[in-house]
């Protein structure tokens, strides 16, 4: 028998039913495209209002915390969102999330202090975005298995598409209505998340899969866990229900731990290069419009790379070892940042923006697909909730720490060198650890096959 205590293998993706891999699933992808797009693009697009919000007599850095708190709340709300998705499904959670974001923006429009904005935009709307992000990611795994990388790549494209749409729209709203009126209009626009949520109808599954709380959602991976660890023999029905909502056993899952350790380190240098791209160009005496255009180039490339990455990840050559593809994408980000300070003039920064857009888009398209590949679609909701709450620290602290390097050295190039190293090291780590993980998985699969064969032979005798 397999050695007791071995960590469970990566999931094969068996949900106990055959995902449709199409049909209404593509409508669900559209809903996820909208929901994920607002989740990531909304906090970034609000920077256009920072200047007028200074009427509260606060510094620019204090205002910048509005978006940071919003992103951190979105990540911190992951576990709660996962629990609600496991209990009620994706559709109602996304719709409630859209209402929360809308209510937060409406309340913020009556704000009289920066603290008011922190609470309304940062906390209320931030948690609303959490209720949009995780359910949208989770339901894709319910509808797709064979075409899942492509579906995830298309859904993740919502972020650059909506960001490129919201940026000019916010400028128009700002010029027409001021920040208070704009926040009310945005509160109405974000109600589209409720429409997106309404599209996420549950997958019709065989009734045999829904007999009890303890057995509901038990697929191939859960059976593998029982075979390898025997832990399920000592748990009561109540504990099984609790584990379904908040699966702490994931911290014993080899693939999950590999993913978590690398991503936590990686996120310290993931967003800062985007945040400081335009300021870096201005520091090199490039005019404001040309500096801003670098972000447009980056976003445009990112927009096309994400679905292309999903298509490549779905091919028979890459899908079986998709973790290596993700590792390659992370390494590419690191190399881009290390070479950025060597770029000379505006042409060099344009080339950097193009290559950075390619590398960044690849990572974003694969970020959640590789987690689903490791833990399986059935445990993904809990896994992504645990990952996001742990990652909220690096997401919140990464850009300020990068800014501290700029202040310390008075030069942006050291910040880009640091981010390059921070991205390169986890990329190399992913290559090494996933080679080890794939090797162990092959060994465990051979052991399981041998046990099954012996059992069949004994049964025949």
UniProtKB/TrEMBL annotation:
UniProt topology in membrane: Multi-pass membrane protein
Subcellular localization, as worded in the UniProt entry: Basolateral cell membrane
Q: Which InterPro entries match?
A: MCT, MFS, MFS_dom, MFS_trans_sf, Proton-linked_MCT
Q: Which Gene3D superfamilies match?
A: MFS general substrate transporter like domains
Q: Which domain of life is it from?
A: Eukaryota
Q: Tell me which residues make up the Major facilitator superfamily (MFS) profile domain.
A: 24-438
Query: Listed GO cellular component terms?
Result: basolateral plasma membrane
Tagged with keyword Nucleus: no
Pfam families from the UniProt entry:
MFS_1 (PF07690)
Ordered alphabetically, the record's keywords are: Cell membrane, Membrane, Symport, Transmembrane, Transmembrane helix, Transport
**Can the keyword Transmembrane be found in this entry's annotation?**
yes
* MF annotations from Gene Ontology: monocarboxylic acid transmembrane transporter activity; symporter activity
Its UniProt entry gives the catalysed reaction(s) as: 4-methyl-2-oxopentanoate(out) + H(+)(out) = 4-methyl-2-oxopentanoate(in) + H(+)(in); 3-methyl-2-oxobutanoate(out) + H(+)(out) = 3-methyl-2-oxobutanoate(in) + H(+)(in)
> What are the TM regions of this chain, as residue ranges?
23-42, 63-85, 105-129, 150-169, 256-278, 290-312, 324-344, 350-371, 383-402, 414-436
Q: Which family does it belong to?
A: Belongs to the major facilitator superfamily. Monocarboxylate porter (TC 2.A.1.13) family.
NCBIfam families named in the record: 2A0113 (TIGR00892)
Protein name, UniProt field: Solute carrier family 16 member 7
């Amino acid at each position: 028998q397999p050695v007791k205590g071995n960590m469970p293998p990566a999931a094969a993706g068996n949900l106990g039913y055959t995902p449709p891999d199409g049909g209404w699933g593509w409508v669900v992808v559209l809903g996820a495209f909208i929901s994920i797009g607002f989740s990531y693009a909304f906090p970034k697009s609000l920077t256009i209002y920072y200047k007028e919000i200074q009427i509260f007599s606060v510094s620019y850095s204090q205002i910048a915390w509005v978006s940071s708190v919003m992103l951190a709340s979105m990540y911190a709300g992951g576990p709660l969102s996962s629990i609600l998705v496991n209990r009620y499904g994706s559709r109602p959670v996304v719709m409630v999330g859209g209402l929360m974001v809308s209510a937060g923006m409406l309340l913020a429009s009556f704000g009289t202090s920066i603290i008011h904005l922190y609470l309304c935009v940062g906390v209320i709307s931030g948690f609303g975005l959490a209720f949009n992000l995780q359910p949208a990611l989770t339901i894709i795994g319910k509808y797709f298995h064979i075409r899942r990388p492509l579906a995830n790549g298309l859904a993740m494209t919502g972020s650059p598409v909506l960001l490129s749409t919201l940026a000019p729209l916010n400028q128009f709203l700002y010029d027409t209505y001021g920040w208070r009126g704009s926040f009310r209009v945005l509160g109405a626009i974000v109600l589209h998340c409720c429409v997106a949520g309404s599209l996420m109808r549950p997958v019709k599954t065989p009734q045999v899969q829904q007999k009890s709380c303890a057995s509901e959602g038990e697929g191939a991976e859960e059976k593998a866990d029982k075979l390898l660890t025997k832990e399920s023999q000592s748990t009561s029905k109540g504990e099984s229900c609790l584990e379904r909502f908040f699966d702490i056993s994931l911290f014993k899952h080899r693939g999950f731990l590999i993913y978590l350790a690398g991503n936590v380190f990686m996120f310290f240098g993931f967003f800062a290069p985007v945040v400081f791209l335009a300021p870096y160009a201005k520091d090199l005496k490039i005019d404001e419009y040309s500096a801003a255009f670098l972000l447009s180039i980056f976003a445009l490339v990112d927009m096309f790379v994400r679905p292309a990455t999903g298509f490549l990840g779905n091919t028979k050559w890459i899908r079986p070892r998709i973790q290596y593809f993700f590792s390659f994408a992370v390494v590419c980000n690191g190399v881009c940042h290390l070479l950025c300070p060597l770029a000379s003039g505006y042409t060099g920064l344009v080339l950097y923006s193009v290559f950075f857009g390619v590398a960044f888009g690849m990572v974003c398209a694969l970020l959640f697909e590789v987690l689903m590949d490791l833990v399986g679609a059935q445990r993904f909701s809990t896994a992504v909730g645990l990952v996001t709450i742990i990652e909220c620290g690096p997401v919140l602290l990464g850009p300020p720490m990068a800014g501290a390097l700029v202040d310390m050295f008075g030069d942006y190039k050291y910040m880009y060198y640091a981010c390059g190293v921070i991205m390169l090291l986890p990329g190399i780590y992913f290559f090494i650890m996933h080679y080890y993980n794939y090797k162990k998985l092959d060994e465990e699969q051979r052991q399981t096959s041998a046990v099954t064969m012996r059992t069949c032979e004994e049964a025949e005798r």
